[in-house]
Write a structure and sequence with these properties.
about 280 residues; alpha/beta; Rossmann fold; five-stranded mixed barrel; 9 strands; binds hypoxanthine
Length: about 280
Amino acid sequence: MMVSPETLQIELKETADFLNNLLKGNQVTTAVTLGSGLGDFADDLEDKIEIPYQDIPHFHGTSVVGHAGKLVYGKIKGKVSVLAMQGRIHAYEGHSFSEVVFPTRVLKFLGVKNLILTNASGGMNPKFQAGDLVLIKDHLNLTGNNPLLGKNPDFLGPRFPDMTHTYNPELSEGIRKAAKNISYNLKDGVYVGVLGPSYETPSEIKMYQTLGGDMVGMSTVAEAIAGHHCGLKIAGISCITNMAAGLGTQELDHADIKEEANRVKGTFISLLNETILGLK
Ligand code: HPA
């Protein structure tokens, strides 16, 4: 459901007030949205405050297997505070894009500056293989949708936001540097965002490759657009959980995808920790 900018502003404020109350004044600069199978980052945090999505006003719970659905505040190595969104909602579950990006906008209201979006994706670049972590340098929004449709919420950002630097160069550089520090060979690529929930046909994958895509997935683009629109610095890390349709030897299965993401969780957590500890 599309709400008016006035109603949206009231809802965001109500949600932020509710969360601020539970977070007891703990200020957070960086937030992370955790993709399929990548939720364990939040479990490792210290001094945690966990808030299930279903308890949060105006949030919608997640229903997909492998998406825990809670907001987790915590500290990395006793030093830096972070907010982790463990699980996200997707348009393929029947949510509008404005519902999908509500949590992203709440982060802005909580005073968050940096948002690292993570996801599981299918690799289309032949240089990629399952298990690779890839920095998202740009995206192709092929969902046929946009979270900014409707009357523009001017209090968040402009009607026609420039998208040249959707994935913030400085924040992305922080991730590259962190990868170097942990001796991880981080690749980069263009993320193709699709609606799903069916996986792609091999012909679609060929088309996306021709268009310049390196990996494909069913999330992230809406949050990146809305986050950039409201002035959050966005970066993205994609976990290649499988080679996309027609490129691998196997048919695609959500259980295998989660399992692959789970296999790289150690490296993924180290990369995020090193990145966030290195941010100013
Ligand atoms: N396609 C779309 N979404 C995905 C894939 C894929 O191959 N793998 C993980 N998420």
